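Need C-alpha cells for this chain, all 270 residues.
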Amino acid sequence: MQNPEKASLSARVICAAAVLLAAFGAFVGSGVLGGTPIAEAADGRLSADATLLAPGTGAFAIWSFIYTALCVYAIWQLTPAASVSQTQRKLRPLAAASAILNALWIGSVQLGWLGISVLVILILLAVLSRMFMLMRPRIENAAERWITAVTFGPYLGWVSVATVANIAAWLASLGIGEDAAWTTPLAAVLVVVAALIGAATVLYSRGRLGVAMAMTWGIAWIGVGRSDGGLLSAPVSATAFVAAGALFIFSVVATAMWSSRRTSKERVLA
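Here are the C-alpha cells for all 270 residues:
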C-alpha cells in the first residue's frame, strides 16, 4: 500500500501562524484588552439592542470557545498524524483564510465600514461552508474527527447567525425599514429560516451537532435580546425561543438516530 503524501512543514507552519496571529489580532481588536468594543464600534450598530435580529450581549461569549478551538486546531495540525491527512490538506488554507477574514471583519467594523463588514462576513460564511462540505465524509481518525468538528462546526453555526445580524445592522444604518410595520414579521420569519438551515446541516452531515448547537445558541440569544433589552419585541422573542427549542430537540433526536444507524451497520459488518 502506498504511503499517503505528507503535507509540507511550511504549509503546516503557515496555517498555524495565520490562525494564531489572526485569532490574537481578533482578540485584541474586539476591545477585550482595551479600545472600542465591537458593540460600541460603528456607532453602536452591532450592539445587542441595535436591531430586532441582534443577539443579546451574553451570546458573544461563544467567541472565547471558538478562538480556543482554533488555537487547538492550529497546533494539532502541525502533528505528524495531521500531516498525512488528505482532509487536512484541503482544510488548512481555508482554516487560515477563515481566521484572517474574521480579523478583517473586526477591523472593518472598528473603522465603521458596515457595508464592507457585510461583504467580509459573507466571504467568511462561504469559506466555512466549504470546509463543512469537505468534512462531510466520515473521518476515521477519532482525534481528527473531533477536533475539526468541535472547531469548525460551532464556528460556522455562529457566523451564520452573525451574518443575519450583520446584514440587519447594515440595512438599518441605511435607514431601510426604520419604523416600518413589516420589520417585525420579517425578523420572525428570518429566525425560523435560520433554524431550518441549522436543521438542514444536521441532515446533510448525517448527525453532526456543532453547527446546529451554535445556531441554537445564537437564535436563543436573539430571543433574550428581544425580551430583556432596550429593543423589546414579544413576537420576535417568542419565535426565537420556540425556534431554538425546536432546533435543539430535532438535532439531538436526528443525531441519536444517525448514531444508532451507524452502530447497527458496524455490527452487521462485524
